[in-house]
Specification:
The protein has 722 residues and is mostly beta strands. It contains two helices and 45 strands. The longest helix has 6 residues.
Length: 722
Amino acid sequence: MASSETAIAQAPAERKAAQVSQPQEQGVLEDIVVTAQKRSERLQDVPIAITAVSSTAIERGRISTTQDLQLLVPSLQYTSLGTSATPFLRGVGSDIAMPNAEASVATYIDGVYVAHTVAAIQQLLGVERVEVLKGPQGTLYGRNATGGAISVITRTPMQELEAGGTLTYGNYDRIEGSAYLSGGIADNLVVGVYAAGSMRDTFVKHITPATTDQPDKEKSLAVRGKFVFSPTETLKLTGSIEHVEVRSPEGGTFRNVQSDSVLYNPLVFDQPRIIERRVAVNDHPSYSRSNQTSAALRTEADFDSVRLLAITGYRKSTFRLSSDLDGTQLPFLAIFGDQFGKQFSQEVQLLSGPGSPVEWIAGAYYFNQRAGFNPVTTLSNLLFPSPVTGLSNIAAVRTRSYAAFAQATVPINQFRITLGGRYTVDKKRIEDASSFAVDAAGNLVGAATPFPDEAKTWRAFTPKLTVDYKTGTTLFYATASKGFKSGAFNIATPADNGPVNPEKLTAFEIGSKSRFNGGRIAFETSAYYYKMKDLQVQVFDPSRSASALLENAASAELYGIEASLSATLTSELTLNTAVAWEHTRYKNYPQAAGFVTTPGDFNQSSTVDATGFKLPQAPEWVVSSSLDYRKELANGGIIGASGSWYYNDGFFWHTDGSRQKSYHLVKLSLDYTLPGEHIMLRAFVTNLTQAKRANSVFYTPTSLLYQEAEPRMYGITAIFTY
């Protein structure tokens, strides 16, 4: 586990953008340099609540995707709905699972924004570090960073030849492998290639008819090529191309855990009641699959007094979700949908040089995306009149966003005052929308119903003011800021497309960062108060639509306290621990949508006054703690052991009362590095205690659907470096 102030250990090779200075004496915690404010700074000196996670911490903790980061960041609650990411940071998030409605916690890969929620769960391939920025980042990161930002920085190749790889075997017939090779091919050109792949059996037992083609293997493949070209001493180009494929039977699998479901009623549908962990009953194939291809180019020019930085990004994504939504072998309700997305972004920044008494940055940003369903189909042999077996919707949303921003930090004695602001214009248009009925063979039944194109423009100014004060080895800071999440069209139901209004947040925060005992102890704390307006939520209301609908949830109030501690207890033993406490309440939400359940009957859609209810996916208490032990042996080998514990006291999924109970997660690993430090063997186990937790939970007219999170996983890994 990596605390907010330090990471467990440094990456195998030092990087310019994330240089970790070597401790001056044994036992001193390492300093981490981050780029959260678009320039390289010591984490200790940045007046923002940040958790920085090193590549070594990612490797030891078996953090394979951005979703796994929640185990290291107590205030981050990261679940998924089907293939869509639903991250919540300090209680701020969104469970909307459709194109053009981005997450409230923004994801960036090497400075490029990842817009599509189904692309936000990223494979952590060849990662240098991850920075989790808490609180609205409306000035430097802009739109859709209401709750914060997750910034992934990938490894940058260097002139020195580097090579390595891993090979893993584990339960569920897990086979994983990764490799990288990088180095200079000319004095001014270095390249690197990074690849990883995995395959295992599904941990879910599917009870299906013989005619159902149900996938049973989880597979992933990721490849990245990256180069650094320096044609002159003042100009540097860093580019990358990446392709990722993921196939998951679990991503589309839900099981019905409503024991009194109408489907189990012997007088109605009389389906067998099978409610067992990791056992799913379905007649429709349940799986998810995704393909992503992305490219990025970072251009840096140094003019002594100023620096110019341009970041260009492109991403093309396709996704498919196929799910049985009744949890029986009855063809009552299923969904089959294809999503697509193409995005292009261009950012230009002008930054003050290293000798400037005032640190400043100014820039402009352009974003263009087209994303949609092609199509999404609700399937049922019982709900629709024959010969209709499905209702399909096709729609796309074109998004164009323009922004200008600036921020400056002025030192006044021991104080620093930072003032910044961003002005954003978002333009969205829903286009090519239509609905049509299909039969069992997928043929059109009757005529399609087209819907007119509609457009909407939103504008927002998101300022930030920070005052920080440093005395000795302690930094104090206070911040007031605003965040803005763009409005969205409901393209799953073009006949009722909205749009919903932008989500806005006003935040106030105080905090401190300290070093004690000669740099052997780091302590960080922060307290915050948020006011939210027009929260965007996704609801299921069969009286209005067979698909999901979007609405605004009026207003909410959130406040909390966080603290983290890192300490070198001995020269061989390091402790990292963090705790987060939060209070959340809807201040005004009189018409929240939900379901009323009646034993043996259909679940009826209803509204409830959710004023005073807790916000979804906002646990009150979360604790994360880890110990890491390293000892060099007389023969030159190194033994290591790591253990981590994560506690979540539970949360509500929605305003309908569905709840995740409290749970504990325990991870252990034991490793041995052979003399010479080129080969390491590691044994690991995750979710040791088989904690019961879900990725998502929601009601339908017949069921309470539950998607399993991973059970206990264990195995052994061989790591090779050159």
